[in-house]
Amino acid sequence: MKTIIEPFKIKVVEPIRFTSDIERKKILQKAHYNSFQIDSEKVIIDLLTDSGTSAMSHHQWAAMMQADESYAGARSYHRLEKVIYDLTQMPYFFPTHQGRAAERILYGVLSTKKKIFISNTHFDTTRANIEYAGSIAIDIPCKEAIDTSSEYPFKGNIDLEKLEIHLKKYQNKTGAVILTVTNNTGGGQPVSMENIKQTRMLCNKYKVLLILDCCRIAENAWFIRHKEQKQAKKTYLQIAQEMFSYADASVMSAKKDGLVNMGGFLTMRDKKLAEECQNLLIITEGFTTYGGLSGRDMEALSVGLQEVFDKDYLQYRIKSTAYLGEHLDKLAIPVVKPFGGHAIYIDAKQLYHHIPPYQFPGQALVCDLYVKGGIRAVEIGSLMFGKSKNGKFIPAQWELVRLAMPRRVYTQSHVEYIIEVFESIKKNIYQSKGFKIIYEPPFLRHFTCKLKPI
Ligand code: F0G
């Protein structure tokens, strides 16, 4: 069957308020053409992020009612501990309020003296936490990742040749190797089991820790099962368990594949490392058995971490994201290929080839999506990563726009609507103009900068 049937029925609904394009033009102007500055009530379809935006199941809501909110030794903590142990087989586990809190703790502890961290690609908060702790983050994505239109199935892989060169060069200086699964910054592309295994072997050879940034591990497991022949007979959970078996530690933002609105955790095998992380956890997050989460949060996460490996859920998740990608591709909208698990990325430099990078073609698409259809997306290009050096503009490597799909939130007709909005944008592409920045803060300018159309 061609039709993607959402593997759930809808029991609670959140109304969407429709706005007209005239209203939206005014809203956008008031928000200084920055999609982070628009109130969610004024958005029809929100594709800003897949993080913390999942719809929870009735099993999750029911579990929350049974939560134990005790400060120490709560039942809800032990339940979560068991689920996470089953998944990771790592003896030490600490809950945190979200992913970046787990990163701050782990990379804070591992950054004694200036260390080098090497990754397929560090997510921006990961890089920021490593640099904030005084260390250096190096990205070495595989060569195939460079071409946004190639269909190579595992563009999330780390470049193993470069990894060995770096490990040799930075012997005794490497803090850890980090594999981000899937690779968010690289378009939600998966890492293969073979690549994880080879990375493990190199880490053994050079006696370096291997850390999994596992916030989209279930989606990565789907790709491994369907694209890596040797793995085809395993369940998604077994694949994820094998992925963890090669790692020494893991960091998770549970706001993604944990199917919860807030939460994260850290796991590890080494006792001494765990003791140091525990100290920092207690100082900055909370006591060991809640670490920034309420009992309710831990209950919802225990259930979410099991639901996410359901085969019908994962099939729907990956296929519905691909459905959007395939239809945009048919409209000749340049999309990053193959389609990632959590998002579709548009190559705005190609689509708006009349707008130069220094006028932010990605932001032009973000604004068009909002005005034409009330769709909120995010620019991942020169507005986010571009820099200026001695007054000279240095563009980002790509001018992308991310359409991130919240989990279990939108139906196929919402996706049809998004496709129709793109159709309408495409017809009037040359009417779109670029932008210039009229205000920017010193760090992470995309969140709060103000823009003006040219
Ligand atoms: N690692 C990866 C790969 C992520 O994608 C994120 C968050 C984090 C770590 C940090 O987790 O937000 O819970 O502190 N990504 C979100 C996004 C923000 O929109 O892609 P957090």
Could you give the topology of this structure?
Layout: H1 21-30, E1 45-46, H2 58-65, H3 75-88, E2 92-96, H4 99-110, E3 116-119, H5 124-132, E4 136-139, H6 160-169, E5 174-180, H7 193-206, E6 210-213, H8 217-227, H9 236-245, E7 249-253, E8 264-268, H10 271-284, H11 295-307, H12 311-330, E9 343-347, H13 348-351, H14 361-373, E10 375-376, E11 378-380, H15 382-385, E12 387-389, E13 392-394, E14 400-404, H16 412-427, E15 435-439, H17 445-448, E16 450-453
Parallel strand pairs: 1-10, 3-4, 3-5, 5-6, 6-7
Antiparallel strand pairs: 2-8, 7-8, 9-14, 11-14, 12-13, 15-16
Helix pairs in contact: 1-14, 2-11, 3-11, 4-5, 4-10, 6-7, 8-9, 12-16, 14-16
The protein binds ligand F0G.
Keywords, separated by commas or semicolons:
454 residues; alpha/beta; Aspartate Aminotransferase, domain 1; Aspartate Aminotransferase, domain 2; 2 domains; seven-stranded mixed beta sheet; three-stranded antiparallel beta sheet; 17 helices; 41% helix; binds ligand F0G
Can you describe this structure?
- The protein has helices at 21-30, 58-65, 75-88, 99-110, 124-132, 160-169, 193-206, 217-227, 236-245, 271-284, 295-307, 311-330, 348-351, 361-373, 382-385, 412-427, 445-448, and strands at residues 45-46, 92-96, 116-119, 136-139, 174-180, 210-213, 249-253, 264-268, 343-347, 375-376, 378-380, 387-389, 392-394, 400-404, 435-439, 450-453.
- It has 454 residues and is an alpha/beta fold.
- It folds into two domains: 21-50 and 310-453, Alpha-Beta Complex (Aspartate Aminotransferase, domain 1); 58-307, Type I PLP-dependent aspartate aminotransferase-like (Major domain) (Aspartate Aminotransferase, domain 2), CATH 3.40.640.10.
- It has a seven-stranded mixed beta sheet, sandwiched between helices. Strands 9-14-11 form a three-stranded antiparallel beta sheet. Strands 1-10 form a two-stranded parallel ribbon.
- The chain starts with 20 loop residues before the first helix and ends with a strand.
